[in-house]
Structure formats: C-alpha cells, structure tokens
Design a protein that fits this description.
The protein has 293 residues and is mainly alpha-helical. It is built from 14 helices and no strands.
Length: 293
C-alpha cells in the first residue's frame, strides 16, 4: 500500500485501519481485471472510513472503472475538498465526458487548475480535451489539441504511448490513413508495457488477419467419410454371408491424458469492521470488538 495512504489510515483505530487497508488492497488488485468486485470492496471501505481522502479516491476510481460516472465524480470532488490538490482534475473532466457533457470537460481544460498539474497531469488533460472534441464531432480540433511538444518529443515517457496512440486514432478517424499508420507505429515503439493495441491497429491497416492456431488446426484435420464396401449377391438376391461386414459403431484405440481437477481458489469477500462479510457470514478475521470510525 502507498505510504501516503498508510499515513492517512493512522488517524483510525488500529483494528479499523487494518480492515480498511485490506479492502483498499483488494480494490487495487482487482480494479483492472474485475472492476465490479473492486467496486464492492470500495463500498465497504467507504462505509468504514468515509472521512479518509484515500478511501474517497479509491471509491471514485472503482466507480469510474465500472462506468458509474456520476458516483465517481462525486467521490473525486469529495477527495479534492479534503486534500485541496488538483491531481484528480483530468479524471473529473473525463467523468463529465462519460455523463455526456463534453462541453463541461472542455471548460475544465481551460481552468487555472490545469496549470497547477504536473507534466503527466497536463498530458492527461490534453487527452481528455481531445476526446471531448471528438465527442462533439470536431475531428480537426481534436488533432490540433493533441499536437504538442510532448507529442513531438523523441524521449519516451509514461504517457508517450497513449498520446501517440490517441493522435493516430484521431488521424485515422479523419481519413488520414498514411499518417495514422506512422503514428500507430510510433505508439507501438513507445509501448513497452502493452498498454495499447497499437500492434493490432497496425496489422489491421496492413491487411494482416490473425487466425487462432487451434481453429486453424481443427480446420486442417482430414474428414473421413465411411468407406463404401462392395457387396456380392447370392443367387437368391441376398448378401453373401462370407463377404458381408458389419460396423458396430465403436471406436478403436484409447484416449490418454486424464485431466487433474484443480481446486477453485476462493477470493476473500469484502468484510466490514466487525468481521462480518457483506452477506452476513462471520469471517473471524479480526478482533471481536472494533471501534467505529
């Protein structure tokens, strides 16, 4: 857990702080792959410690990940009031986009708070503003919005791949395919962690089609039709017993490779401070009595 978050939780009684910490860790672990579960844990943490800014922020990101933009915006605003910082400004503007209000996102992009953001925050704000322009079908304006020293820079920063990708995508939407391909390639070059699908977009532009290996193998497997067997007839028109053959429908050979059953790993469920799961089951994970926040 982040050091600043741990410091914030020190304002809570020890047992309560531990419960909140466990739920916040689960939010962080699940938010990318299982955002709905992360959201459930965030709601438990929020019930336990709603006056902790880190909890409000985590709840905001969990709501944002599940496209609950109104709820996310409310949590981000609460966290900002508690801390006085502006670092949540870009994601707050993006929530306005999610709520169908791109003009408000653009207005936020012109506020003095943007000048207080660090470089990463300013790039993020530029991405949100360009997205708002595209929401309003202003493609040329979106392209101009993304043109910046950060885009032209040859150095690779954490935001470089996403900025180049957004620029390429805007160019493609505007019908400038050759330029788009160039910038998708630049995005791929900067994307060491695979945060974008620039490689897939490049392949699509080049007409490359990816085929699932297993599907291809299944398609190449030969298909055997039942073999027709010649029959001879006896003088009375019946099939000769010595030359007739029957098929009993059974397959020869054995199948090898028995699959071993693996036990399902059960993930911990969100627990309130009194050691009770959200479904009412006693988890017995902490002290029997805990101080309320």
């Amino acid at each position: 857990m982040d050091k600043d978050v741990r410091q914030e939780l020190q304002s809570l009684p020890k047992g309560l702080a531990e419960d909140v910490a466990r739920n916040l860790v689960m939010v962080a672990n699940l938010i990318d792959e299982e955002p709905e579960k992360a959201y459930e844990y965030s709601r438990v943490a929020l019930r336990l410690a709603s006056r902790v800014a880190a909890v409000r922020e985590a709840a905001g990101f969990a709501a944002y990940a599940t496209q609950k933009y109104s709820e996310a915006l409310a949590e981000f605003r609460a966290a900002r009031r508690m801390t006085g910082t502006v670092e949540l400004w870009p994601v707050m503007a993006d929530c306005e986009r999610g709520l169908g209000r791109p003009e408000r996102a653009l207005a936020m992009a012109g506020e003095p708070e943007v000048q207080k953001l660090d470089k990463a925050g300013q790039v993020e704000m530029r991405l949100v503003a360009a997205g708002a322009r595209r929401d309003m079908e202003q493609l040329d304006a979106a392209i101009v919005t993304l043109q910046s020293p950060e885009l032209a820079s040859q150095s690779v920063q954490p935001w470089t791949a996403r900025l180049r990708y957004a620029y390429a995508d805007a160019l493609l939407a505007a019908g400038r395919e050759d330029e788009a391909r160039e910038w998708f390639a630049k995005a791929l070059e900067a994307d060491k962690d695979g945060t974008t699908d620039a490689s897939d977009r490049l392949a699509e532009l080049d007409g490359v089609e990816f085929v699932d290996v297993m599907d291809a193998l299944d398609g190449d497997a030969p298909h055997h039709e039942p073999e027709a067997r010649p029959q001879t007839e006896t003088g009375d028109g019946t099939e000769s017993e010595s030359e007739s053959e029957t098929r009993d429908g059974t397959a020869t050979g054995t199948e090898n490779g028995t699959a071993a059953a693996a036990g399902d790993r059960e993930e911990p469920r969100p627990a309130d401070a009194d050691g009770v799961d959200t479904d009412g089951t006693d988890t017995e994970t902490g002290p029997s009595e805990r101080s309320a926040e």
